[in-house]
């Protein structure tokens, strides 16, 4: 899709999320070991993106910097805006191992996001997780389309991701 003067780009930073049903909005973020979920209800034409930092909640209760809270806030926000839980579909991105020799927080983030989706019965229709490269993603929430750009080292040939029956596509560039 080509952006024009009416297109608004919303950048989602660490510990935040955004939801939109506006066809002129694109949600974007840059990920290292963090993970983002793009969750949409294609029939309703609404979607959202989160960006969480850590897999496990620390002391003090729910915090959207952590996987479970970030995922729950996004799902509940979508449902408050008219999405049906039974029609939600998800795509996951990020979780890179950015520093060799340190604990693999990216893998743990990816595992936490997949576990949340499985526990909540939300189908995962596409993903690009782990590895060693940062990613930039752009998400068109109304149609479910995602563009993924790998950052850093020379990338391997583009991989085909499974195409959903409904809910958009993922485009590597």
Q: Assign the structural class, choosing from mainly alpha, mainly beta, alpha/beta, alpha+beta, or little secondary structure.
A: alpha/beta
Order of helices and strands: EEEEEHEHEEEE
Strand content: 25-35%
CATH level 1 name: Alpha Beta
CATH architecture: 2-Layer Sandwich
Instruction: Say what oligomer this is.
Output: single chain
**What is the 3D shape?**
globular
Largest sheet: 5 strands, mixed
Q: In the CATH scheme, what's the topology name?
A: 60s Ribosomal Protein L30, Chain: A
Return residue spans where pLDDT drops below 50 for at least 5 consecutive residues.
154-160
Give structural notes.
This protein is an alpha/beta fold and about 170 residues long. It has one domain (about 10-170): 60s Ribosomal Protein L30, Chain: A. The chain contains two helices and ten strands. A five-stranded mixed sheet has the order 1-3-8-9-10, with no helix packed on it. Mean pLDDT is about 85; it is low at about 155-160.
